[in-house]
Amino acid sequence: MARIPSGSPADPFPASARKSAFPYLFAAIFAASFVVSLRLAEVDPRVLLDGAAFRNVGRFVGGMFPPEVSPEFLGLMVRPAVETIQISVMGTLIAVLIGFPLGLLATSSLTWRGILHERSRGTAHWAFGVLSYALSRSVLSVFRSIPEYVWAFMFVRAVGLGPFPGVLAIGVAYGGMLGKVYSEILDGVNPRPLEALRAGGAGKLGIVLYGLVPEALPSVVSYTLYRWECAIRASAILGFVGAGGLGQQIELSMRMFQFNEVLTLLAILCLLVAGVDFVSGRIRARVVR
């Protein structure tokens, strides 16, 4: 007996034709966008080769040497360096407290579809899950779409100058990022162990605790630590709006044209990032085991 073809012969737009046309259409749109962006963004590499640009860069780099390494200056920078670490730690902690619950609500396999909801009955249950999913993803989108620099401006107006607005800015902005990634990690967990637990008679809580969490935990911890590293750099940027830390000292030295102090501060910032990278690497290694 002849096999019936799976595709409908009456389809006026075959899938193969759509697939073959899409790369060319995408390439044409990308090329047009690239050309328009070059013009609107005023990208001109020749400016970098201009004599005035070389002189300005040379003046800036020349002013950095020798770096400021006097005991008095280094002693004064201890507190801003510690403050930068504190801002990053507290900001990341607030980000986790914001991102984790919202990330759970923004995980479709936990709220309205997937193996956890196969035996659920009723439209009300499904509608409540979809509503909580949509609201949480909307909140996360708002949080992460506004840069931490803008959040810092708003919090400086609300609570004044100092490290606290920097902590709040990192917490809110990174909370949106963490929540989005947490939800994607949880949604991307291999469903087979969860199905095995379900077949063994485990309830929803058991499936989450013994199947979902162990599978997702290494990726969740790894991305959280990566965001902590980013928070060190972000705290330096936020110092330019009066949020304390090394960034505020860099901004003051730049205003005073003390470029040798800027070089020392950048070196301290690099050491802080390297230290955080070392610590987070050790934590990752233990979690992956």
Arithmetic mean of pLDDT: 84
The CATH homologous superfamily name equals MetI-like
The poorly predicted ranges are: 1-13
Structural class call reads mainly alpha
Q: How does the major sheet shape up?
A: none
Determine the fraction of residues in helical runs and give it as a percent range.
over 70%
- Architecture, CATH level 2? Orthogonal Bundle
CATH topology: MetI-like fold
What do you see in this structure?
By secondary structure, this protein is mostly helical. It has one domain: Orthogonal Bundle (MetI-like fold). It has 12 helices and no strands. The model is unreliable at 1-13 (pLDDT under 50).
Quick rundown:
By secondary structure, this protein is an all-alpha fold. The chain is built from twelve helices and no strands.
Key phrases:
289 residues; mainly alpha; globular; MetI-like fold; 0% strand; disordered N terminus
Outline the secondary-structure elements:
Blueprint (H helix, E strand, L loop, with lengths): L14 H26 L10 H13 L7 H6 L1 H28 L2 H4 L11 H23 L2 H12 L3 H25 L3 H9 L4 H35 L6 H11 L3 H30 L1
